[in-house]
Specification:
- The structure is a single chain.
- By secondary structure, the protein is of the alpha+beta class.
- It has a single domain, classed as STM4215-like.
- Helices cover 23% and strands 31% of the residues.
- Residues 191-198 and 215-224 have low confidence and may be disordered.
């Protein structure tokens, strides 16, 4: 089976997309579990995007859904010559960054003044906590790919950050960044005999780019 070069995604692209899908699917599952227990599902809802420059813009332009936003993007790869060969296999460590955003407005309540920036920070931290728990859960040890492609995933760091000023209301947006380090294989498949495996992920998006999910996963392990 021969696949045109531009039709086959590199594994780092598939890993980035799969991370987003895992977050979407588990968020939906957690919301369902909360509803089954007659709990509020809202704290478990994540709005997930891929490779967006400013996904938090919807906070400033629309009031439809002000829940946490997650943006998954590829941040680079390092190739390990000692574990690779010069023909068709390279051992790679890729960095997938997951930014968690939250928005809140200040308000006066019977308990006193509620600071919007503090509440937004706590909401962003809660979203990051959920993301970290999903990605580091034992069920997602290899991100669903099997050890033939992914050999390790690890949260390298979790850092809070402020959104640069420039848009009205942006001071009420807070962010937490999770850096996910993934050790995996990249292959070079230009001829039939070098074909190792083909994986395809299909992602459906809403009109604003939010991931609705849907996945087609086809993995054929290399013969022993």
């Amino acid at each position: 089976m021969s696949i045109p070069m531009m039709a086959k995604k590199d594994n780092f692209e598939l890993i980035r997309d799969k991370v987003a899908l895992l977050l979407v699917n588990e968020s939906a599952r957690q919301q369902g579990l909360a509803e089954d227990e007659d709990e509020d599902p809202t704290p478990y809802k994540l709005r997930v995007f891929i490779e967006r420059t400013n996904p938090f813009d919807s906070y400033l332009t629309s009031s439809a859904d002000m829940g946490p936003i997650v943006n998954v993007w590829y941040d680079g790869s390092e190739f390990d010559k000692s574990k690779s060969n010069v023909s068709d296999r390279q051992f790679v460590t890729s960095m997938i960054t997951v930014d968690c955003f939250a928005y809140a407005q200040s308000a006066s309540t019977t308990l006193g003044h509620t600071s919007g920036d503090e509440f937004a920070a706590r909401e962003a931290q809660a979203a990051a906590r959920m993301v970290r728990n999903i990605l580091m859960h034992d069920d997602n040890k290899y991100l669903g790919f099997g050890r033939g492609i992914v050999s390790r995933r690890w949260v390298r760091s979790v850092d809070a950050f402020l959104i640069p000023n420039g848009s009205p209301g942006v001071q009420r947006v807070r962010g937490v960044r999770i850096s996910l380090e993934v050790d995996h294989l990249e292959t070079t498949d230009l001829m039939d005999e070098n074909m190792i495996e083909f994986i395809n992920l299909q992602i459906r998006h809403a009109s604003d780019g939010e991931i609705i999910a849907e996945m087609d996963f086809d993995y054929t392990p290399e013969p022993e």
